[in-house]
Known about the structure:
This protein has 279 residues and is of the alpha/beta class. The chain has a domain at 4-151 and 178-212 and 270-277: Vaccinia Virus protein VP39 (Rossmann fold, 3-Layer(aba) Sandwich), CATH 3.40.50.150. The chain contains 12 helices and 7 strands. Helix 6 (79-92) links the parallel strand 2 (71-76) and strand 3 (97-100). Helix 8 crosses helix 12 (244-255) and helix 10 crosses helix 12 (244-255). It is globular, with a radius of gyration of 19 Å.
Amino acid sequence: xxxxAQIDIWNGPSGQKWADQSSAxxxxxxxxxSSVLExxxxxAGEKVLDIGCGAGAMTLQAANIADxxxxxxxxxxxxxxxxxxxxxxxxxxxxxxxxxxxxxTFSTQEKFxxxxxxxxxMFFDHPASAFQNIRNQVTPEGRIVFVCWQAITLNEWIMGxxxxxxxxxxxxxxxxxxxxxxxxxxxxxDRVYGHLSEAGWQGISIEPLITELTLPGTxxxxxxxxxxxxxxxxxxxxxxxxxxxxxxxAVVERLSKNLSSDGRVRMDSACWIVQAQAS
Length: 279
């Protein structure tokens, strides 16, 4: 079965951590969801498919467009996140629907006007095949809009904490395989273009999206704590069985360099905003 490794990850401790921290993470990533929805220019009566929807924040937003006259379905491989998304929809009375499914193989008789994704498309074992399957789920006039990370070295909000932690690591982290599924698998925009083109998408546009992020947390300590629980730094600490206490203090000191007058930490991020047409 494709994407087995990612399915295991997102249904294990990582998926549960994302569910537990969903409010903070959705706040962090809100600017990117807004960029996707703005670029998608979704109209009343359209049907939306949200790929890798996580806890459903962007799906719920999409369902509210045009006074709720939009049909929105979110799919994700993570049961903890889909359960939370369904709970959120129920609590808010949203029409958004959610399905536990792998977008690389997901199929339905329903055809969508647009597929959207907020950092949910970089985890496929076979990206071109997955994008072809997604294309099969949209109408012939359909479109896709998604956001994905540029290189990790261009994302200060991730690199800063990692650099602060390096003196405490047993091994210096080495660059990961740029073609392997993961958050930075689409850092090379030519690779993204190639996968979409191979899948049959037309009119492909890939533009940089540079944003200053406001990190979650009401103090340096709580912000650092989140950095140690979620993302690449959390993975390094776990893999190398590092004592998190000295790392936490070092990250606090690094984050203090980006502390704004309102007490929030702001750091740079770099993404691609990608758009294409089904035909």
